[in-house]
Amino acid sequence: MSANELRRVKDLEAEKRGTAECMVSEHRISRSKACQIAGFSRSALYRPTVDWPAKGAPVIAALNEMVSKRSRWGFWKCPQRFNKSFRVEMQKAADEWLMERNEYRPHESFGDFPPAPFMPRAFE
User: Fold this and answer.
1) Looking at residue 3, what is its pLDDT?
2) DSSP letter string over the chain?
3) Residue 63 contacts by C-beta under 8 Å, 6 or more apart in sequence?
4) What are phi and psi of 123, to 5 degrees?
5) What 3 state SS string does 67-80 have?
6) Is the dihedral of CA 75, 81, 82, 84 positive or negative?
7) What is the pLDDT along the chain (124 residues), one digit of tens a residue?
8) Alpha carbons 11 and 14: distance in angstroms, whole number
9) Is the torsion defined by CA of 105, 108, 109, 112 positive or negative?
């Protein structure tokens, strides 16, 4: 499916949603009947619309920044590098949390003391 066809499908869906909502609000037709007339799924009428360009803006900005710094990479390498850097940041945060949890947080088994003071004795 090309980009133009996809755009047309999205526009058609928005038209059908608008038609069904107009029938419900102005003509006082039930939602199920309005959706049936408009050829629109009733569950799709209840589903909130998502503004994908606004939702993806931070990722797009990060990719554009990456491309401006390293223009030789090209588009296809940037998402891979972006995902790798994101994974590295998340792994670092997870490691810090795990160290905090396992070494410095008070544990009930140690009498509500952190295990760090007991660790050197455990490995002697």
Assistant:
1) 74
2) --HHHHHHHHHHHHHHHHHHHHHHHHS---HHHHHHHHT--HHHHHSPP--HHHHTHHHHHHHHHHHHH-TTS-TTHHHHHHHHHHHHHHHHHHHHHHHIIIIIS-BGGGTSB-SGGGHHHHT-
3) 78, 79, 82
4) -100, 10
5) HHHCCCCCCCHHHH
6) positive
7) 677 887 888 888 888 889 998 999 999 999 899 989 988 888 888 888 888 778 888 877 877 887 788 777 776 677 777 777 777 777 888 888 888 877 777 777 777 877 777 766 555 5
8) 5
9) positive
Question: Residue 121 has what pLDDT?
Answer: 56
Please provide residue 107's backbone torsions phi and psi, each rounded to the nearest 5 degrees.
-110, 145
* Cα end-to-end span (Å), the chain: 66
Per the CB < 8 A criterion, the answer to whether 37 and 29 are in contact is yes
- Counted residue by residue, the chain has a size of 124
